[in-house]
Amino acid sequence: xxxxxxxxxxxxxxxxxxxxxxxxxxxxxxxxxxxxxxxxxxxxxxxxxxxxxxxxxxxxxxxxxxxxxxxxxxxxxxxxxxxxxxxxxxxxxxxxxxxxxxxxxxxxxxxxxxxxxxxxxxxxxxxxxxxxxxxxxxxxxxxxxxxxxxxxxxxxxxxxxxxxxxxxxxxxxxxxxxxxxxxxxxxxxxxxxxxxxxxxxxxxxxxxxxxxxxxxxxxxxxxxxxxxxxxxxxxxxxxxxxxxxxxxxxxxxxxxxxxxxxxxxxxxxxxxxxxxxxxxxxxxxxxxxxxxxxxxxxxxxxxxxxxxxxxxxxxxxxxxxxxxxxxxxxxxxxxxxxxxxxxxxxxxxxxxxxxxxxxxxxxxxxxxxxxxxxxxxxxxxxxxxxxxxxxxxxxxxxxxxxxxxxxxxxxxxxxxxxxxxxxxxxxxxxxxxxxxxxxxxxxxxxxxxxxxxxxxxxxxxxxxxxxxxxxxxxxxxxxxxxxxxxxxxxxxxxxxxxxxxxxxxxxxxxxxxxxxxxxxxxxxxxxxxxxxxxxxxxxxxxxxxxxxxxxxxxxxxxxxxxxxxxxxxxxxxxxxxxxxxxxxxxxxxxxxxxxxxxxxxxxxxxxxxxxxxxxxxxxxxxxxxxxxxxxxxxxxxxxxxxxxxxxxxxxxxxxxxxxxxxxxxxxxxxxxxxxxxxxxxxxxxxxxxxxxxxxxxxxxxxxxxxxxxxxxxxxxxxxxxxxxxxxxxxxxxxxxxxxxxxxxxxxxxxxxxxxxxxxxxxxxxxxxxxxxxxxxxxxxxxxxxxxxxxxxxxxxxxxxxxxxx
Length: 805
What we know:
By secondary structure, the chain is α+β, with helices and mostly antiparallel strands. Strand 8 (113-115) and strand 9 form a beta hairpin.
């Protein structure tokens, strides 16, 4: 929320500097996110009046003006602005003036000079040149009562400061200048100027029939008919200026009045063109299929979950959020209906996000707006309309159908002192709550508060404790070191930390990414094969409506983001949580009934296998490059890779990863269908592993170095092309007597281009090196031959291998 300091000090003016006031608000929980001046620094710019303006003798677009700046003699100034004319008052930069810095950061100094041969003794300024706005319409025209020669900073109050507050949702009562002033008065003890608005004179008895059909939607609905107004009246400069300093542009006089009162008192309102309303108004829930064209030009389709204001023919407004285009006020409006209502917060919350926009009114109503002020604020709005636009006001029609009733909340003084962490007496707590204007009663160390209608956040004891802490000031709380012993949690030696996994991947050239757990539903169907993903009740965006069950979709999005920015080599990983339906899971401190939330680690590699270098020409990354990364990540555990299928991966280039027979993940190239859909020049290679499997590791154990020589024997066998490496190695290690087999490795594969003696087409030759050794003696030649023959026999039995001659 943004507002000018000068407006705040009209309600409460404590003896504090701007910086002290900002610190006081921040330490009370109203964080001042930004504090900046209304205008940048500039000097020697005063109010000037154009007394004469004639055409430049040598330029069609320039005029020579005689300007009175209160120095007696008129200044001769050449100006090219289209609105430079006799009688207007504008900012005039004198010779030696410094205008706001430009793009180079240096101020622009006004010097005596000549334009097309005519001397110019200064410069007439636009709002853009003073950096007050982006308006390029010409000179900044000032009010007719501006004092000639007065410093423009004084005249426009440009030394005012703009406060921007970052308010938490429980501070809805501070979403107005008066609401913040009420807090300042409580914090500083300075007097609070409570605004009082006299009732306007009623000139006619016309009313508009209103029915509240949904009391659970609207608790109070107040309105008034105002006739014979001039909607073409100009919004006063002081109101336009205050709205601009609150970050709100001027629209037209009626909308400006409504917005002004909202920023002043926190009560959103709406002004209908009365002549465009058909019959009576009905405040109700929407009906499926109804449509409404909003003031922002969007046409939305409604349902029974959205509140509306409708007339006899159509829906006219989205309740508590935005009015409809059909009854919008315009320059031709003569009669209006002014409405202010109380909408229950739960009926407004999340509705605007469903339609991908937000409004200041909805922001306030979904947090809670004071239901007792609707009539008073209609009086305020009516008074401003009559003062600016003229007109005749009718009586106020006030329907109170379902107002909130504040429930008493108790505060135990002893508990407040324990929670806040400092000694507090009953008088301390009583004084803090009374300064906030809360009705309090005391009895035996217990304070009872009945929340006023503007405090929707006071519901439990902790809310009152927070209020006491805010009034004390968070900066006043003592720093108390913990008294409990701190014992470091010792990690088992057989388990490494997630940080070690991150570091291992980073050492292999991967960069960590962090992504939302909410993803597109299409990803779940296509990349995870999940037909029933976990849906969000209130997604932050329509394309982030379900919880992810795989990390692969997030990594593909990161890849696309980087490729769109001309990255040609991408290696990324994420260590995050996925969300699965699990009927077996029960509620505990760390789990939710029916849902499993395991941690996983996933990676993606795209582009060249190695970075640009002079020593080696690198090819594109492939399955075996990433398989090596996975093996290094899981080491010293030995993983097996078996052909598999995965919805996101290439059906012929995908493997399931197992450790000790248990599935821990998948690795493979992206499916050609998804590669084409994402428009990728080559297929990225991805892997996804259960984090628990990656964190586990075996504890190293000592074994003595054998005193006896090991021996090596090479064998070459012929097998069918379909026989895999894993099948061959399993047969070798399962041979009888293989206890002396220390190691076996495949070191050569030969496939004939045509049939030859001993090797037919569809067969391949595998060369395997066997490393043999006994721990108690040197092996004899006969013992070695026995083991080799056993291995050959096992290969023949299990994979139909034959010794190649």
